Amino acid sequence: MLRNKQQYAQITAIGGYLPTTRRTNADLERLSDTSDEWIMKRTGIKERRILEDGLATSDMAVEAIKELCATYQKDITTIDALLVATSSPDMPMPSTANIICDKLDLTQVWAFDMNAACSGFLYALDMGAALVETGRYKNVVVVGADKISSYVDTTDRSTNILFGDGAGAVWLEPSKETGVLDALLLSDGKGIEYLNIKGGGSRYPYAMENWDSTHRYLQQDGKVVFKNAVTAMSQACQSLLDQNGLTVEDVNWLVAHQANKRIIDAVGKELGIEEEKALNNITYSGNTIAATIPLCIWEYKNQLKKGDLLLLTAFGAGFSWGASLLQWNI
Ligand code: COA
Question: Has residue 33 got a pLDDT over 60?
């Protein structure tokens, strides 16, 4: 049985933004010892978008929110809560949500950031939905945005092939009928050493003595992350379906975090979902961290039908991971 809620949070609008500058596989061939053929075969990625120097995560989020408002005729001044999932805030403080509010001239908004790495959007969506379900907030905007290129060593072929910049946003409103149905979100610190950006926080501040310059970059053990991602996302999806009395047959679309095309395929296979039901936009965007899920839905929005059941799943640093179920209603 789907969880019975007195009030649901429903997505009533979606927006996105991708920077215009492309970093192609040919660019990466010049920067590191790799090839277009290897990257396509092992990741399914052809290019990623890179935000120019001088601009930051908030600039992309602002564009995504403006695009959403223009497309769905939403009045920006009615936003009463803004949650921003990001691992690449403009600065340690204030929050990127505050900076976005300032850029949008919003002064009366409950706004803050959440960091759950690549799972951030699912965490923020669950939190945003909970705010709406309480009845205290009526127009909640949830953003997933990352300028992760600021942390990628462009000469490191173990990471430069995967990551790109982008932002996606959804608008949540109350509904008596349907919307965000349920979520299962988890975390386990066993993954800290396998995927991280060490520098710039309070443990390894930039000003520390004996600063290790590799700490400024995203580091990962790709193989360990890959295996854990497939198992964790598949299990979270299956558990969420089970606890709601559903099967993969009920799911219209699987929207998995866009980390690597082979990971998306493996999760679909593990769950027994037909390939054409698994949305993917990784080829031309890469892994945009907290932005992948809203950006992917945004790109496919014209193919989604009212009433479709979407199963979302993500995995990221921490490790943090989970799944969400929602009924599309736009
Ligand atoms: N270009 C060319 N060759 C490369 C390469 C690159 N960019 N990276 C690795 N190789 C080589 C390796 O040296 C190795 O060569 P060898 O067999 O001669 O030793 C071979 O290719 C295989 O390397 P491996 O590290 O096993 O590749 P992989 O298939 O695991 O792919 C990743 C590497 C990073 C693409 C993959 O592990 C991955 O996507 N992991 C998940 C990362 C992720 O999702 N992170 C974010 C989570 S939110």
Answer: yes
Q: Provide the β-strand partners of residue 81.
A: 110, 140
Domain that holds residue 90: 8-176
- Rounded to the nearest integer, the mean pLDDT of the chain is 97
The residue nearest atom 34 of ligand 1, judged by CA position, is 222
Give the separation between CA 112 and CA 16, rounded to whole angstroms.
19
pLDDT at residue 1 in the model = 43
Taking the model in full, what pTM does it have?
A: 0.97
Total domains present in the chain: 2
* Ligand 1 proximity of 292 Cβ (cutoff 6 Å): no
Ligand 1 center from residue 36 Cα (angstroms): 13
Q: How far apart are CA 228 and CA 251, in angstroms?
A: 23
Amino acid at 274: E
Structural domain contains residue 27: yes
For this structure, is 257 an active site residue?
A: yes
**249 falls within a domain:** yes
Are 113 and 243 part of one and the same domain? no
Per-residue confidence (pLDDT) for residue 3, from 0 to 100: 61
Distances (CA, A) of 133 to 33, 148, 178: 51, 32, 11
Angle among Cα 125, 236, 232 to the nearest 5 degrees reads: 110
Q: Are the C-beta atoms of residues 69 and 39 closer than 8 Å to each other?
A: no
Chosen domain end from 143, 176, 209: 176
CA of 167 to the centre of ligand 1 (A): 26
Distance 117 CA to ligand 1 centre (A): 20
Is any ligand 1 atom within 6 A of the Cβ of residue 42?
yes
Domain boundary among 153, 176, 199: 176
State the virtual CA torsion across 90, 91, 92, 93 in degrees, nearest 10. -90
Q: Is 101 a catalytic residue?
A: no
